Amino acid sequence: MTHSPSGAAPDGPAPSAPLGGPVPAHPVYPDLAGKVAVVTGGSRGIGAETGRALAAQGVAVCLVGRDRPALFEVVDGIGKEGGTAIGALADVTDSAALRRVAERVAEELGPVDILAAFAGGRGSPVPALELTEERWRQVLDAGLTATFLTIRAFLPAMVERFSGSVLTMTPASSASSGGHRPGGPDLAHGVAGAGLTVLTRQLATELGPQGIRVNCLAPSTVRTERVAATMSKEAQHRTALRHPLRRMAEPADVASAALFLASDAAGYLTGITLDVAGGRITG
Ligand SMILES: NC(=O)c1ccc[n+]([C@@H]2O[C@H](COP(=O)([O-])OP(=O)(O)OC[C@H]3O[C@@H](n4cnc5c(N)ncnc54)[C@H](OP(=O)(O)O)[C@@H]3O)[C@@H](O)[C@H]2O)c1
């Protein structure tokens, strides 16, 4: 299983460098079959791809999002492939809505084994001097508090069963393993992202003795539908070339890392932030 080589020179632009590249098929993790997962941000992008990848392993998934047509397109697609999926419309900044999702999943799918708190997105950066209190609170609420609320809604049942794998998500530029590398004037997103790595480590420490693992994924720029639609081809090429592996991540690259961390293959890993960044952690 190898990625196709891009042929890009290490130090210069390569106009023919692929923007993305073929991503190897996911390995099968036999322990995942029969489990139950909740994936927030499941209506598109990385969350949708992770939902599809989990379902292909025999996991029953609940996808959470706000956009009904997009969410149910993913749910229906999984059903057509023979997988089990339900969709739950909820805003992850709303703790009451999240509690209702938790109750519904328990009723319809059973106890949750895997929780992927992936909902989010990046708003425009705002330089510190122009950052209003309202904007600061908005970014921290959607980018950090929402992950706490999501985990809190599902945690009691995991603790009760002494079992669970929780995945969080932060941009590689905010991740601790490569060192915090501010990408520009983007204080609120940077703080929210760095906070997620601390949340992950702190929860892993507290919950390890209760049988629960908590790990974080830290992708660099992922070529989701949204990114592909909003970034020019030239910008995608430039971004690809800034990665030692000379391509942008595909959603399947992140899903692959999520499968691994959710599975027993990562049974002794907790509290880590895994860069899914094509080597772009070094500067
Ligand atoms: N793409 C990248 O380059 C990249 C890189 C590093 C990290 N990430 C992180 O990866 C995660 C997914 O990103 P993506 O690129 O796949 O995003 P995307 O394509 O824009 O999709 C965002 C997903 O999050 C959901 N969402 C956002 N806010 C929500 C809310 N308040 N309540 C419920 N659902 C909400 C959206 O659902 P609805 O549209 O249905 O509301 C959608 O499913 C985000 O946390 C993002 O920060 C992305």
Query: How big a fraction of the residues is strand?
Result: 5-15%
Number of strands: 7
By CATH, the architecture is named: 3-Layer(aba) Sandwich
The first-level CATH class is given as Alpha Beta
Mean pLDDT: 90
The CATH homologous superfamily corresponds to NAD(P)-binding Rossmann-like Domain
User: In the residues, how many domains can be counted?
Assistant: 1
**Termini, distance in Å?**
28 Å
Q: Mind telling me the C-alpha Rg?
A: 18 Å
Bound ions, cofactors and other small molecules, one mention each: NADP nicotinamide-adenine-dinucleotide phosphate
Largest sheet: 7 strands, parallel
Number of helices: 8
How helix-rich are the residues, as a percent range? 40-55%
Label this structure with key terms:
283 residues, 7-stranded parallel β-sheet, Rossmann fold, binds NADP nicotinamide-adenine-dinucleotide phosphate
Structure, described:
This protein has eight helices and seven strands. The chain is of the alpha/beta class and 283 residues long. The protein has one domain: 3-Layer(aba) Sandwich (Rossmann fold). Strands 3-2-1-4-5-6-7 form a seven-stranded parallel sheet, with helices on both faces. Strand 2, helix 2 and strand 3 form a beta-alpha-beta unit. The longest helix has 29 residues. It binds NADP nicotinamide-adenine-dinucleotide phosphate (NAP). The site of NADP nicotinamide-adenine-dinucleotide phosphate (NAP) has 31 residues, from helix 1, helix 2, helix 4 and helix 6. One of its GO terms (molecular function) is oxidoreductase activity, acting on the CH-OH group of donors, NAD or NADP as acceptor.
